[in-house]
Amino acid sequence: MSTDHGTAADRERALTDEVVAGFGRAAAPRLREVLQSLVRHLHAFTREVRLTEREWETAIEFLTRAGHITDDRRQEFILLSDVLGLSMLTVAVNQPRTPGATEATVLGPFYTDDAPEIPLGGDLARGAKGTPCFVSGQVRSLDGGPVDGALLHVWGADEDGFYDVQYSAGRSAGRGRLRTAPDGSYRFWTVLPTPYPIPHDGPVGDLLTAAGRGPMRPAHLHFKATAPGHRTLVTHLFVAGDPHLADDAVFGVRDSLVVEAERHAAGPAPDGTHPHRPWTSMTFDLVLVPGTDT
Ligand code: BEZ
Ligand code: FE
Protein backbone atom coordinates (compact mmCIF):
# COMPACT_ATOMS: atom_id res chain seq x y z
CA MET A 1 0.00 0.00 0.00
CA SER A 2 1.43 3.41 -0.94
CA THR A 3 1.75 6.12 1.68
CA ASP A 4 1.58 9.89 1.37
CA HIS A 5 3.42 10.43 4.64
CA GLY A 6 7.10 11.16 5.15
CA THR A 7 9.80 12.49 2.84
CA ALA A 8 10.25 11.66 -0.84
CA ALA A 9 13.02 9.26 0.22
CA ASP A 10 10.63 7.55 2.66
CA ARG A 11 8.06 7.12 -0.10
CA GLU A 12 10.68 5.65 -2.46
CA ARG A 13 11.72 3.14 0.20
CA ALA A 14 8.11 2.30 0.99
CA LEU A 15 7.58 1.40 -2.67
CA THR A 16 10.60 -0.92 -2.58
CA ASP A 17 9.27 -2.56 0.60
CA GLU A 18 5.86 -3.04 -1.01
CA VAL A 19 7.32 -4.76 -4.08
CA VAL A 20 9.64 -6.93 -1.96
CA ALA A 21 6.67 -7.97 0.16
CA GLY A 22 4.70 -8.78 -3.03
CA PHE A 23 7.36 -11.26 -4.09
CA GLY A 24 7.37 -12.64 -0.54
CA ARG A 25 4.29 -14.60 -1.58
CA ALA A 26 6.35 -16.78 -4.00
CA ALA A 27 6.06 -20.33 -2.70
CA ALA A 28 9.51 -21.53 -3.75
CA PRO A 29 12.06 -20.20 -1.21
CA ARG A 30 14.88 -19.82 -3.73
CA LEU A 31 12.67 -17.96 -6.22
CA ARG A 32 11.54 -15.70 -3.39
CA GLU A 33 15.13 -15.01 -2.33
CA VAL A 34 16.34 -14.24 -5.86
CA LEU A 35 13.39 -12.01 -6.83
CA GLN A 36 13.36 -10.05 -3.57
CA SER A 37 17.09 -9.42 -3.80
CA LEU A 38 16.79 -8.44 -7.45
CA VAL A 39 14.11 -5.88 -6.60
CA ARG A 40 16.14 -4.45 -3.71
CA HIS A 41 19.25 -4.02 -5.88
CA LEU A 42 17.36 -2.72 -8.92
CA HIS A 43 15.53 -0.17 -6.80
CA ALA A 44 18.72 0.86 -4.99
CA PHE A 45 20.40 1.36 -8.37
CA THR A 46 17.49 3.46 -9.62
CA ARG A 47 17.58 5.67 -6.51
CA GLU A 48 21.39 5.94 -6.59
CA VAL A 49 21.64 7.18 -10.20
CA ARG A 50 18.31 9.05 -10.00
CA LEU A 51 17.25 7.29 -13.22
CA THR A 52 15.40 9.68 -15.54
CA GLU A 53 12.27 8.63 -17.42
CA ARG A 54 14.11 9.18 -20.71
CA GLU A 55 16.91 6.86 -19.53
CA TRP A 56 14.34 4.24 -18.53
CA GLU A 57 12.86 4.46 -22.06
CA THR A 58 16.33 4.12 -23.58
CA ALA A 59 16.92 0.96 -21.55
CA ILE A 60 13.59 -0.50 -22.69
CA GLU A 61 14.42 0.34 -26.33
CA PHE A 62 17.85 -1.31 -25.87
CA LEU A 63 16.32 -4.52 -24.51
CA THR A 64 13.70 -4.51 -27.26
CA ARG A 65 16.45 -4.31 -29.92
CA ALA A 66 18.31 -7.12 -28.15
CA GLY A 67 15.15 -9.23 -28.34
CA HIS A 68 14.62 -8.49 -32.03
CA ILE A 69 18.17 -9.47 -33.03
CA THR A 70 18.15 -12.68 -30.97
CA ASP A 71 17.33 -15.95 -32.70
CA ASP A 72 18.55 -19.57 -32.69
CA ARG A 73 22.03 -18.50 -33.83
CA ARG A 74 22.43 -15.04 -32.30
CA GLN A 75 22.02 -14.54 -28.53
CA GLU A 76 22.28 -10.83 -27.74
CA PHE A 77 21.26 -11.28 -24.09
CA ILE A 78 24.22 -13.59 -23.42
CA LEU A 79 26.49 -11.07 -25.14
CA LEU A 80 25.06 -8.39 -22.84
CA SER A 81 25.73 -10.59 -19.81
CA ASP A 82 29.26 -11.17 -21.14
CA VAL A 83 30.20 -7.51 -21.63
CA LEU A 84 28.71 -6.59 -18.23
CA GLY A 85 31.02 -9.20 -16.65
CA LEU A 86 27.95 -11.07 -15.37
CA SER A 87 28.85 -14.31 -17.19
CA MET A 88 32.35 -14.33 -15.78
CA LEU A 89 31.13 -13.39 -12.29
CA THR A 90 28.69 -16.30 -12.39
CA VAL A 91 31.60 -18.61 -13.30
CA ALA A 92 33.65 -17.15 -10.44
CA VAL A 93 30.81 -17.62 -7.92
CA ASN A 94 30.11 -21.20 -8.95
CA GLN A 95 33.60 -22.42 -9.73
CA PRO A 96 35.96 -20.63 -7.34
CA ARG A 97 39.63 -21.28 -8.01
CA THR A 98 40.84 -24.56 -6.55
CA PRO A 99 44.60 -24.31 -5.95
CA GLY A 100 46.39 -26.63 -8.37
CA ALA A 101 43.38 -27.05 -10.67
CA THR A 102 42.87 -25.40 -14.04
CA GLU A 103 40.81 -22.22 -13.81
CA ALA A 104 37.42 -21.99 -15.49
CA THR A 105 36.25 -19.25 -17.81
CA VAL A 106 33.21 -18.40 -19.94
CA LEU A 107 31.57 -20.90 -22.30
CA GLY A 108 30.67 -18.28 -24.92
CA PRO A 109 27.90 -18.63 -27.50
CA PHE A 110 29.69 -20.85 -30.03
CA TYR A 111 29.76 -24.23 -28.26
CA THR A 112 27.79 -27.00 -29.95
CA ASP A 113 27.37 -30.45 -28.44
CA ASP A 114 27.49 -32.23 -31.80
CA ALA A 115 31.15 -31.63 -32.69
CA PRO A 116 32.62 -34.53 -34.71
CA GLU A 117 34.72 -37.11 -32.90
CA ILE A 118 38.34 -37.00 -34.04
CA PRO A 119 41.05 -39.57 -33.31
CA LEU A 120 43.95 -38.67 -31.01
CA GLY A 121 46.36 -36.64 -33.13
CA GLY A 122 43.67 -35.86 -35.73
CA ASP A 123 42.96 -32.50 -37.36
CA LEU A 124 39.92 -30.68 -36.06
CA ALA A 125 40.47 -27.66 -38.35
CA ARG A 126 38.77 -29.59 -41.17
CA GLY A 127 39.01 -26.71 -43.59
CA ALA A 128 39.11 -23.77 -41.14
CA LYS A 129 41.58 -21.17 -42.47
CA GLY A 130 44.78 -20.46 -40.55
CA THR A 131 48.31 -21.46 -39.57
CA PRO A 132 48.45 -25.12 -38.54
CA CYS A 133 48.80 -25.55 -34.79
CA PHE A 134 49.68 -28.76 -32.94
CA VAL A 135 48.15 -28.73 -29.44
CA SER A 136 49.12 -31.33 -26.87
CA GLY A 137 49.04 -31.87 -23.14
CA GLN A 138 47.84 -34.09 -20.35
CA VAL A 139 44.61 -34.22 -18.36
CA ARG A 140 45.30 -34.92 -14.68
CA SER A 141 43.26 -35.16 -11.54
CA LEU A 142 44.01 -32.80 -8.65
CA ASP A 143 46.00 -35.57 -6.93
CA GLY A 144 48.35 -35.67 -9.94
CA GLY A 145 47.09 -38.91 -11.48
CA PRO A 146 46.37 -39.05 -15.23
CA VAL A 147 42.74 -39.06 -16.35
CA ASP A 148 42.19 -41.83 -18.89
CA GLY A 149 39.35 -41.33 -21.36
CA ALA A 150 38.51 -37.75 -20.43
CA LEU A 151 36.30 -36.24 -23.15
CA LEU A 152 37.65 -32.99 -24.56
CA HIS A 153 35.46 -30.70 -26.64
CA VAL A 154 37.62 -28.13 -28.41
CA TRP A 155 36.44 -25.22 -30.57
CA GLY A 156 38.07 -22.14 -32.01
CA ALA A 157 37.72 -19.36 -34.55
CA ASP A 158 39.53 -19.35 -37.92
CA GLU A 159 42.17 -16.78 -38.85
CA ASP A 160 39.44 -14.36 -39.97
CA GLY A 161 38.01 -14.49 -36.45
CA PHE A 162 34.86 -16.47 -37.25
CA TYR A 163 33.49 -19.72 -35.84
CA ASP A 164 31.97 -22.25 -38.26
CA VAL A 165 28.45 -21.51 -36.99
CA GLN A 166 28.85 -17.84 -37.94
CA TYR A 167 29.21 -18.79 -41.62
CA SER A 168 26.17 -20.95 -42.16
CA ALA A 169 23.92 -23.36 -40.32
CA GLY A 170 25.33 -26.87 -40.57
CA ARG A 171 28.93 -25.87 -41.36
CA SER A 172 31.38 -27.67 -39.06
CA ALA A 173 35.08 -26.74 -38.93
CA GLY A 174 37.51 -25.77 -36.20
CA ARG A 175 35.81 -27.96 -33.63
CA GLY A 176 35.94 -31.56 -32.50
CA ARG A 177 35.88 -33.91 -29.55
CA LEU A 178 38.48 -36.46 -28.57
CA ARG A 179 39.40 -38.68 -25.64
CA THR A 180 42.60 -38.77 -23.66
CA ALA A 181 44.90 -41.81 -23.79
CA PRO A 182 45.44 -44.06 -20.70
CA ASP A 183 48.31 -41.79 -19.59
CA GLY A 184 45.94 -38.78 -19.76
CA SER A 185 47.72 -37.36 -22.82
CA TYR A 186 45.99 -35.76 -25.77
CA ARG A 187 47.09 -34.17 -29.02
CA PHE A 188 45.41 -32.71 -32.08
CA TRP A 189 45.95 -30.30 -34.94
CA THR A 190 43.90 -27.14 -35.39
CA VAL A 191 44.60 -23.59 -36.57
CA LEU A 192 46.42 -21.01 -34.48
CA PRO A 193 43.79 -18.82 -32.77
CA THR A 194 43.81 -15.10 -33.60
CA PRO A 195 42.09 -12.21 -31.79
CA TYR A 196 38.53 -11.53 -32.95
CA PRO A 197 35.63 -9.20 -32.12
CA ILE A 198 32.51 -10.51 -30.43
CA PRO A 199 29.44 -9.83 -32.62
CA HIS A 200 29.14 -6.04 -32.37
CA ASP A 201 26.67 -5.06 -35.09
CA GLY A 202 23.77 -4.95 -32.62
CA PRO A 203 22.79 -3.09 -29.44
CA VAL A 204 25.64 -4.61 -27.40
CA GLY A 205 28.14 -3.28 -29.97
CA ASP A 206 26.52 0.16 -29.68
CA LEU A 207 26.81 -0.04 -25.90
CA LEU A 208 30.52 -0.84 -26.15
CA THR A 209 31.06 2.07 -28.56
CA ALA A 210 29.15 4.50 -26.33
CA ALA A 211 31.23 3.34 -23.36
CA GLY A 212 34.51 3.76 -25.24
CA ARG A 213 35.17 0.01 -25.03
CA GLY A 214 36.26 -2.33 -27.80
CA PRO A 215 34.69 -5.64 -28.89
CA MET A 216 37.94 -7.66 -29.14
CA ARG A 217 38.73 -10.95 -27.44
CA PRO A 218 42.35 -12.10 -27.23
CA ALA A 219 43.26 -15.20 -29.27
CA HIS A 220 42.02 -18.33 -27.51
CA LEU A 221 40.95 -21.91 -27.97
CA HIS A 222 37.92 -23.21 -26.04
CA PHE A 223 38.04 -26.47 -24.05
CA LYS A 224 35.27 -28.33 -22.26
CA ALA A 225 36.59 -31.34 -20.34
CA THR A 226 34.39 -34.02 -18.79
CA ALA A 227 35.51 -37.18 -17.01
CA PRO A 228 33.79 -39.60 -14.62
CA GLY A 229 34.33 -38.64 -10.99
CA HIS A 230 35.35 -35.09 -11.88
CA ARG A 231 33.65 -31.72 -12.18
CA THR A 232 33.19 -30.46 -15.72
CA LEU A 233 35.75 -27.84 -16.65
CA VAL A 234 34.97 -25.12 -19.21
CA THR A 235 38.01 -23.06 -19.98
CA HIS A 236 40.22 -21.45 -22.65
CA LEU A 237 43.82 -21.58 -23.62
CA PHE A 238 44.94 -18.00 -24.35
CA VAL A 239 47.90 -17.25 -26.64
CA ALA A 240 50.75 -15.38 -24.91
CA GLY A 241 51.68 -11.98 -26.34
CA ASP A 242 48.19 -11.19 -27.62
CA PRO A 243 47.55 -7.42 -27.57
CA HIS A 244 44.06 -7.91 -26.11
CA LEU A 245 44.94 -10.00 -23.05
CA ALA A 246 44.41 -6.90 -20.88
CA ASP A 247 41.14 -5.74 -22.45
CA ASP A 248 39.11 -8.84 -23.20
CA ALA A 249 35.58 -7.60 -24.03
CA VAL A 250 34.11 -10.35 -21.81
CA PHE A 251 36.67 -10.32 -18.94
CA GLY A 252 37.51 -14.02 -19.39
CA VAL A 253 41.32 -13.94 -19.18
CA ARG A 254 43.09 -15.71 -16.31
CA ASP A 255 46.89 -15.45 -16.23
CA SER A 256 47.22 -19.19 -15.51
CA LEU A 257 45.56 -19.95 -18.87
CA VAL A 258 48.04 -18.04 -21.04
CA VAL A 259 50.49 -20.23 -22.98
CA GLU A 260 53.23 -19.58 -25.54
CA ALA A 261 52.70 -20.56 -29.17
CA GLU A 262 55.98 -21.84 -30.58
CA ARG A 263 56.62 -21.13 -34.24
CA HIS A 264 58.27 -23.69 -36.52
CA ALA A 265 59.48 -23.69 -40.13
CA ALA A 266 57.92 -26.21 -42.53
CA GLY A 267 59.26 -29.62 -41.61
CA PRO A 268 58.87 -32.51 -39.20
CA ALA A 269 56.36 -32.24 -36.35
CA PRO A 270 56.35 -34.30 -33.11
CA ASP A 271 53.66 -36.64 -34.41
CA GLY A 272 55.73 -37.73 -37.42
CA THR A 273 53.91 -35.51 -39.93
CA HIS A 274 55.79 -33.06 -42.18
CA PRO A 275 53.77 -29.86 -42.62
CA HIS A 276 54.73 -28.20 -45.92
CA ARG A 277 54.27 -24.73 -44.48
CA PRO A 278 55.21 -22.98 -41.24
CA TRP A 279 53.31 -24.33 -38.25
CA THR A 280 52.94 -23.65 -34.54
CA SER A 281 52.60 -25.68 -31.37
CA MET A 282 51.17 -25.16 -27.89
CA THR A 283 51.20 -27.29 -24.74
CA PHE A 284 48.33 -27.09 -22.27
CA ASP A 285 47.73 -29.42 -19.32
CA LEU A 286 44.30 -29.58 -17.70
CA VAL A 287 43.87 -30.40 -14.02
CA LEU A 288 40.33 -31.48 -13.04
CA VAL A 289 38.72 -31.29 -9.61
CA PRO A 290 37.33 -34.60 -8.27
CA GLY A 291 33.60 -34.49 -7.57
CA THR A 292 30.35 -34.17 -9.44
CA ASP A 293 28.61 -31.28 -11.15
CA THR A 294 26.00 -29.53 -9.02
C1 BEZ B 1 33.74 -16.69 -27.33
O1 BEZ B 1 34.83 -16.74 -26.82
O2 BEZ B 1 33.48 -17.52 -28.20
C2 BEZ B 1 32.78 -15.62 -26.93
C3 BEZ B 1 32.56 -15.37 -25.59
C4 BEZ B 1 31.68 -14.38 -25.24
C5 BEZ B 1 31.03 -13.63 -26.21
C6 BEZ B 1 31.27 -13.88 -27.56
C7 BEZ B 1 32.16 -14.88 -27.92
FE1 FE C 1 35.79 -17.78 -28.48
Features of this protein?
294 residues, Protocatechuate 3,4-Dioxygenase, subunit A, 2 domains, five-stranded mixed β-sheet, 28% helix, binds benzoic acid, binds fe (iii) ion
Question: How is this structure best described in words?
Answer:
The protein has 294 residues and is α/β, with parallel strands linked by helices. It folds into two domains: 44 residues; 213 residues, Aromatic compound dioxygenase (Protocatechuate 3,4-Dioxygenase, subunit A), CATH 2.60.130.10. 28% of the residues lie in helices and 20% in strands. The chain has seven helices and twelve strands. The strands form three sheets. Strands 1, 4, 10, 11 and 12 form a five-stranded mixed β-sheet that branches. A five-stranded mixed β-sheet has the order 3-2-7-8-9, with no helix packed on it. Helix 1 packs antiparallel against helix 2. The longest helix is centred in the N-terminal third of the chain and has 21 residues. The two termini are 40 Å apart. The model has no long low-confidence stretch (mean pLDDT 95). The site of fe (iii) ion has 5 residues, from strand 7. Fe (iii) ion binds next to strand 7.
